[in-house]
Queue: 2 jobs
Job 1
Amino acid sequence: MDKFTLLNGLVMPMDRANVDTDAIIPKQFLKSIKRSGFGPNAFDEWRYLDHGEPGMDNSKRAINPEFVLNQPRYQGAQILLARENFGCGSSREHAPWALEDCGFRVIIAPSFADIFFNNCFKNGLLPIRLDATQVDGLFKAVEAHIGYRLVIDLEKQTISTPDGTVYPFEVDAFRKHCLLNGLDDIGLTLQYVDEIATFEARHRAAQPWL
Amino acid sequence: MSAQTLYDKLWNSHLVRQDADGTALIYIDRQLVHEVTSPQAFEGLRLAKRKPWRIASMLAVPDHNVPTTNRAAGIADPVSRIQVETLDANCAEFGITEFKMGDIRQGVVHVIGPEQGATLPGMTVVCGDSHTSTHGAFAALAHGIGTSEVEHVMATQCLVAKKSKAMEVRVEGVLGLGVAAKDIALAVIGQIGTAGGTGYAIEFTGSTVRALSMEGRMTLCNMAIEAGARAGMIAADDTTFDYLKGRPFAPQGEMWDKAVAEWRNLHSDAGAVFDATVSLDAARIRPQVTWGTSPEMVVTIDGCVPDPATLSADQREGAERALVYMGLKANTPISEISIDKVFIGSCTNGRIEDMRAAAAVAKGKKIAANVMLAMVVPGSGLVKAQAEQEGLDKIFIEAGFEWRDPGCSMCLAMNDDKLAAGERCASTSNRNFEGRQGQGGRTHLVSPEMAAAAAIAGHFVDVSKF
């Protein structure tokens, strides 16, 4: 996993609530047995005018110029600004894989669905919960200024706007540590192999039917 | 010790270790595996030269990509076929029990776990699928995880987790005629919203829940995720034990008695404190129909499509967008919405009781002329066999329904079963998101009874008056 420390990134707004993981990466692309290559099909149904299927040459497909991801001013965005309950629905980790493959490293929203939120951290993506009124303010600012960027400092847990406003944000200490150092969860857990084995022996002795 | 919730008991009995900030390692008793969310996890194990910690804890089945007709011909779509073959190869390589496509025990992962007794009270159950909440019906702590976590559980038998808050959803009273567990689930979501349960584990309690069959309880817990809660659960009782007794993976003989004695403690103690409580009166729950593109966009069969102008500012835009997508006008009575297709099945409503409920409505009738396809997809090969033994297949076929082979099918349309753009479907599945059942497809979530009645009438109709 890539480390995440400091990001100065262009912001792309997605102004709708309850964006579900089916929308982020439609089901036909879940047939892949790989972890990469989902980026060109992120938001496929909103992004292209035709119906997408795996194996298509996406560069030749007609794009929906209205959709935010296709607007020239947001090309190269690394920060996705979103609304309530982002990432709801299916547990598919293909959703953060697709967003990461599109170049996003941070998602800011008033709330996230639990499974999606968790999946982001496993892939070097930082989901940030911010107060709804602050998110609202950021939407207005992004809309008003072409090239609007934010600076995300994970160590200090701050979002800095171009006008000097600083929003602090919360992040779980363990998740922060893993992101800052690019650590693999499995390797960390295997430090406790003896504790797990001891627990397992006791647990299964008490409930031998397990 | 102070009074504990069921969730407290399940959490505490699986806690391997916990850091000061609350980050914990939770031991996992059962991991269910399907073809869509596992290949990258197996690949990760191989790359890191790791072995699964406890192979016996895993049970695998292909369900999302499998065809529901002409199975003998195999899977036509090469991309789907590779995914299923990859699961077969991975299970063979690691020695994991798998019910392959030709096996009568194959079916939707959340149907076959309980059916086999592979889901037991007091267990922690995970699967790379959000509807893993289904298994909580057995007083288990069960929830969906991402593929990285699938790999993590394979390698360590543990999950890194933080304890959620606990919510009690209490339903008291007797359900009216034609009102099913699905209606309770949709009514709860209508009340608390699709993010209402975010950050919580929900326990369903009350006399209505106690009176539900295991099939009904599974439907209810299945939909907990649609309320935002990763886990839903219900206390264990004789209904739970009667369902499980004698199933292949369940303990037998003396061990069974020992297990049941232990399982009787799997309920919230009197006086246990929940972080939030929601109450519903069963007598007031009517058959539900969703009108929009989120499960919270739901009204009763007697209702009308809402007028976005009457909704709060934060809901208006979403409702307007949903009406455009759904091709519906504000204030249209739900009973005047005609349908093109019907889907009965899925991990929500693909069990034997669902088949029976739908067949009881369809018996001796014919599907309406405007319904171009009404399909019944049993949740497993064993559900299918049981239904055929009861003659339900004949009832469906005589009424004009198609009787298919088991799988996820048109719940998420990863196989050939999908809606074309603009088609409107009465569906017993769990999500009415844009494009869920096929790009441009329009999904209305209902109970099996309501889906069957809609197939016969050609439009939504109150099954209690049908």
Job 2
Amino acid sequence: MRPMGGPGRGPHGGGPHHEEKHRSLAEISVTVWLTPENARFLYQNNFLYIEYDGKTQRVFLCRQFPFELEWEFISVMDAEQQEIGIVKSVELFDEEQKKLLVEELRRRYYSPVIDKIISVKERYGFSYWKVHTPDGEVSFTLHDTYRSIIHAGETRIIMLDVNGNRFEIPDTSALDHKSYKKIELYL
Amino acid sequence: MFEIDRIPCAVTEALGDKGIATDDIVLAAHVDRTREHTVGDVYLFATKEELILFSGVMAVRSETGHFRAAPAVHKKWMETGYESYLIRELCGFSVEELLSSGRLTARRREGECPVYLACFTNFCKESMFLFAKYANKLSEGESPEIDPKDDPVSKQCPKCGLRYPDLNRRVCPHCMEKGKLFKRFSVFLLRYKGYLMMSVLSLVLLTAMSILAPYLSSGFFYDEVIYGTGIFAGELLLVLGLIISTAILKMFATMINNLVTSTIAAKVVFDLKKTIFSAIERLSLNFFTGRQTGGLMTQINEDANTIYGFFCDSLPYLLINIVQVIVLAILLFTIQPMLAFLSLVTVPAFVIVMRWMFRRERMLHAKRYSNSRQMNSFLADVFSGMRVVKAFSKEEEEIRRFTGKNGNLAVSERRLSLFTNYAWPMAHQILYLGNIIAWGVGGWMIISGFGDMSYGKILTFIAYMNMIFSPLEFFVHFLDRLADCTNSLQRLFEIMDAQPDVSEKENPERPAVLGGSVEFSHVTFSYQKGKKIIDDVNFDVPDGHILGIVGHTGAGKSTLANLLMRMYDAEEGEIRIGGYPVKELELAMLYRNVAIVSQETYLFIGTILDNIRYARPDASFEEVVQAAKCAGAHDFIMKLPDAYHTRIGFGYKDLSGGERQRVSIARAILKNPKILILDEATAAMDTGTERRIQEALTELIKGKTTIMIAHRLSTLRDADELVVIEHGKVAERGTHAELLEREDGIYKKLYTLQAEALKSAGISE
């Protein structure tokens, strides 16, 4: 096993590089569905592995429709960012396997949920936020506030801060009145 | 010790108790998560022998960008875990990015087994990239020399020690000194001091006349002229003359003020825009790729107006209004202190209501602006994509979407106009309340003979009282204008102070003749820390030779071109042209000798002639035509009605992709550089056009050192040597024939794939 970059990115930190596999169009256009019959997931050394096609290798999970389907249509990628196959739904797998997948996805897609906005200060093209999350209070900065807020549904928003963190408000209409007033302008 | 993050004393002391002396620590950093993805403090230490993970709970200052462990009551370090690894047993430290968080991993030298070291949110990502970089050196047994650019001190505000909220823009929101900004700007303004003085003087005159006029037409008129017994009694003509002359003086003062203001406005705005534009032009390409161009344009336009508006409009009025309020208050209290006191109780209410209304209106305006922006971008989007809309017969759907956006805009417009139409008249009732108090109390005073009141005095009093509210309204707005102006000034100075990444050396080399050879030795470059785009690249091209660069999309080919052009500077290694390192060369000399023709051709608004002559404005007509002929552009240009004077660019005649490309090749031919870079110059063309352009290019590259970057390998047939780039490294190197001989070579695979694709498309090479 060699070190690898996170999903969607190449390898970092000076690790050795990989040669990309060159696959033909015919190979790429075939969708492999991963099911309990042809694949098994396991957890070793704090990393997720798959047993598939006679090989055991470390894998990364990616949601294909992250704003809509949390536990369905999961791409399973190998270290070189090539898709091994797709898990149509985690429900297909037994409890123990499902737990592995759900936990790995939770870790990968972890983003703090904002339950209260304490203050917003707009200054010099940046906005400085102080919010409350289940993990405690946190302050972060957005550059170009309007563009840093992704609308991931009617009332669900995701904020991308200057450091690349994501903060989520699952339902803006469920915020308390004071918090809502602070964010209203950006909605 | 190299502290990537600040390590509290309590932690190093606790570490000392474990037998690790602070002096032995080479590297230290902090992450804000445990490996189980819960909130917690973990400190990472590296000595020459060991890697230590020290976790626990600590009361930390709430710094921007760090989670604070929920109940921060522990005053000292409460250790929860201690782990150590022999650093020589690990290698390949790297950062795996998840979405909002990341992991630091390494692998064991024996067995290649991956090791999960730490987890962190993106607040700590930068630190972890640094940690991985130096830990890799330590694990190889090298002593890490710290690059001064990585010094964490540069991440903190030197004044308050807090981390900058945005590391790319080192502005501390707590410590920004407004005073300094204004002082610095006033130096700029001093150029216009004559105009400013005139503006202030005319304003003083205007204010004096405004204060005098009500007195002459009411108090003086009734009490002295009509009912008076003094020397002015019955002097009707005199008082009329006085009233007329104040009116005329007031008119003159207004005219002078307007004249001065419009002259100075044009001058200041012009100078400001020039300053901002030239400051921006000076900067390296990096500055532009990091920001949106649209943002830059509004910045130049709006900032200049905001700054002007504040200094030349708001600030003089501020002075005048302060004086006016003081003078009016004194006058009111001199006329009748009791009446003044009673009538002015409405002032605080007025200020509070105004402030609230002003905020509310700004908010409504912002909403309306945001809705109208959304609608406009929707319209632009749909109209430019009309072909697609029609092709999928989505007209109905688009009309429905438009109705939605239009409805939103209508709602916000209605809210705004309702507010302005109802709220403002209501707020002005507060003013009127003051008048009623003055009439009532003043009337009672005359009737009861209290405090020497007269009808004329009441009239003067009310006239003055109404005058006091407009400066008050001004003060309410003033604070917001001040904030806007500080904002713009801050941006202005930030641009002026930004250091171009690429700068010319003092006393650069200016060889009389520059050779055409190109040499890359051990060149390394990354746009972002830790992500090497170019990794130890070596190659050389002798004068007059052609080098082909091949590789997948994103392999770093175009970056090599950018580095040669010094759009960016290499981090490590050296690039030499004609034996001179590019960093030593005079920039003008470099740009004169290197030209690039890329896939994205940019033609400026102007005639074809202007565009071809862009690189050499002094080129003669013969030369332009010759260049266009060589580029195969002459024929199509002559078919246009205005030939070389055809206006092209945004909003004018639209040339096809191939035509634009040929114009840009003509531009490069006219420049006649020593070294030519062809960056996917024909990638977007159909085969026929490509062939014609290839012919033009063959003409262009005769006798020049050429670097050809291409995706389509057939275009590289003429290259003397080929370099295959994979993940920023030179993977293969050799002639076409040599590379094809390599079994399992990347080039061979690519070539076979493309040849097959061409064959199946019915084209054989």
